[in-house]
Queue: 3 jobs
Job 1
Amino acid sequence: MIIVVACVAAILTVPLTGRSLAPLAKLELRRVWIVWLSIVVQFVITVVPGVPNWVGQPLHLLTFVLSALFLFANRRLPGALLVGVGAASNLAAIAANGGTMPASPWAWRTAGFPVLTDHFENSNVVHGARLSWLGDVFAVPNGWPFANVFSVGDVVVVVAMGWFAHAWCRREVEAAPIDVASLERVAVSSSTVR
């Protein structure tokens, strides 16, 4: 949830630069159904209590495959490659640890989470974790809004989403055609006023 909130916050910085978010309404994404399928699978494995590890871990990896397919279909969008880098670093940590994102004990405690071992968690303290530096090593402290753990890959994804929003909104303004006739009328009217 913290990553979604951070991505929305990054996108909302566009108006701070004097640009409009309106061009995002014209954005046509390809294969959107893949994202929805990935979200549904993530929802099931993280919200439904008691999902066993042998079910949750492969489904967690599947959500990354689905996300990669969506990203590939939309690879020409600004920032898509950077989103892919962030997602790939998360996938590397998850795949290296059997389908669970390894969280550092410090980050897990700081966020106020109990260590759960009897059922699937998409992120959890993994003893002897491989690629632990790519895992959830940062935390929003317990008691703060959206307390959670997050990774370097998550930070890269948030930065990429901000970059995408700024580039897309700027591109739409720059791509707007110049109405030469209107400019000529303004030039003529301003010269007659003098």
Job 2
Amino acid sequence: MKPLTPNEFQEVADRLGIQGVPAKAGAANSARRMNKTEERFRRERVEPRVLAGELAAVMFEAVKFRLADRTWYTPDFVLIRTDGLIEVVEVKGGWWQEDARVKWKVFAEQHPWFAHRVEQWDKEQWKVETYA
């Protein structure tokens, strides 16, 4: 399965009523390659779900969401499950900065229809934090 392009994501977003926008080509985040932790997440946590037929689409930094004036949030991964549920996943290494945590929480509050979680690699295992 190939990931959706930003234009393909926008078509899905329009059909589902998602108010995000594709990350601009050439923008710092959209042009970025996965770091080692994000690559590990893709390999260990996403690929098995793709192979099992659970995920219909996988996007890496393909969309950004406006939180407030001049404040945007670009999730690391947006996963669209075959049952239609959309998961927004932030991937972190050992720690993360407080401003990033605040953006994630504000985004989760503004978009309660998504499943939100942070998957953090901590030495030998994934720790999962969800927003309730």
Job 3
Amino acid sequence: MNVFLIVSIALTVVVVLWLLWPLRRGARRGTLTVTELNSKVYRDQLQELERDLARGQLNDANYQEARDELQRRLLQDVTDVPAPVVAKAPAATGVRGRWTAISLAVLVPIVAAAMYRGVGNVGAIDAVAAAALLSPEQKKQQEMLSRLVAVLEKSPDNYKGWVLLARAYRSMERYPESARAYDRAAPLVTTNPDLLIEQAEVLTVSANDDLEGRPMELVRKALTLEPSHPMALMLTGMSAYRRGEFAEAIAQWQKLLTVLPPGSDDARDVQSNIDQARAKGGPALAAALASAPAVPAKSADKAPAVASAGASISGEVSLSPAVQAGLSPDDTVFIVARPDDGSRAPLAVLRKKVSDLPLKFTLDDSLAMMPDRTISKARGVVVVARVSRSGQPIPQPGDLTSEPTAALAPGATGLKLVIDKKL
């Protein structure tokens, strides 16, 4: 809009000056005196005589005679004038000229603005100006995005493509368009907790950081699919905290602590949130928490010393030399036990680092994500090991993984897991 205003003002000034220029010249011409007029005529005629002399059409004697005659006529004309000043524009003409100038200066901008408001398109010049300010890389991204939109409109069932478009809009901070693209990929989004959380975050930003309503519906659906999803737990706790339900916020964030690395920056931030919720809740909340029945310990620094008898899976995990290139010793390793019924919710999770490999491990009920979902209660267990480049428990493209084991009965020992595949 600023560009449009600058261009409009500049053009209006040019037009007004162009219209006023003849009035200014006319005013100057209206003030000639008779003497000035006669002198001008004399100079023109004298210049003509000098040109004739130079061309040889007059000799010196004729030239001198003609010049003397001009001087006598000029002297006679000036002497015969009764008044010193004539041919001056009437005063009324000067007043009319000033009012004409003022009218033009005021009316031209007003009429131009009114006409453009009725038939113009302010956004057009802004769009052109904005496009001109884009870098070559940004222009290339815009062109690629336009081509992607055109392709997807012709193949609306390309849900992965719509997700790609939604993420592109999200990276460009075009959140409403990103949310609509996630909607177009609904059959894929509703089955993937990561995508559900992505859409919830986009909707939250679009609603001025308001989590309630549809964003929380998506978060709750993500938790149904993945009860230990870190971001879903964080957002659920945040929503409860904003509603003043501090006990619920603490419960969600305590679950989140069980999936975060002990002593990490994330864990410290979550613990700070918990402490703040306790302070907000006051004495009543403290009494309620103190009287609540104890939950089986799951924290990283206080696990039960002995797990349920026969409720463990043990073995060794190693890293294939073929996939070691590019890994950092601090990259996270997850060893996960899941039920063999197809559920993605883990029964136990052990978190280590690449520098710890090869590693002998034991998974038992002390590493359970939820008290009612443990190895001891499962009929069959599938175990897999994975290197997470992002540090997140949810598998991401580029992570390295082992082949999942066949279904194992609780109490199995001697497993050999080799991380040798790339997701």
